[in-house]
Amino acid sequence: MAKVKTNPDKDIVKEIRDKLKENDGYCPCRIFRTKDTKCMCKEFREMIDNGKTGMCHCGLYIIEEDN
Questions:
Q1: Helix, strand, or coil here: 19?
Q2: What is the rounded CA–CA span in Å between residue 32 and residue 3?
Q3: d(CA 3, CA 5)
Q4: Sheet strands (E) in the chain
Q5: Which letter, b or e, does each residue of 25-60 get, where b requires 16 or more Cβ atoms within 10 Å of its Cβ?
Q6: Model pTM?
Q7: How far is the CA of 55 from the CAs of 3, 7, 50, 60, 63, in angstroms?
Q8: 61 CB neighbour count, 10 Å cutoff
Q9: 3-state class (DSSP) for residue 22
Q10: 13 CB burial (10 A radius; 0-12, 13-18, 19+)
């Protein structure tokens, strides 16, 4: 089973969260503001649903294998 964690780099997390606040919760890495780009974005939710590991588009969240 996979586990979702925030990025261990505290500077990146702070920067992204600041940008999320400025963007009303929309991913700072996306041009368009739609329900699909609201954090956690659709792309990342689909990664979770499909059991994939990796990082979300902006780097705030990481999916890791739960050992």
A1: helix
A2: 28
A3: 6
A4: 2-6, 54-55, 61-65
A5: ebbbebeeeeeebbbebeebeebeeeeeeeebbbeb
A6: 0.86
A7: 12, 8, 14, 8, 6
A8: 21
A9: helix
A10: middle
Determine the Cα–Cα distance for residues 48 and 17; give it in Å rounded to an integer: 20
Place of tokens 């990342």: 44
* Greater pLDDT, 65 or 9: 9
11-67 pLDDT, tens digit per residue, is: 999 999 999 999 999 999 899 999 999 999 999 999 999 999 999 999 999 999 876
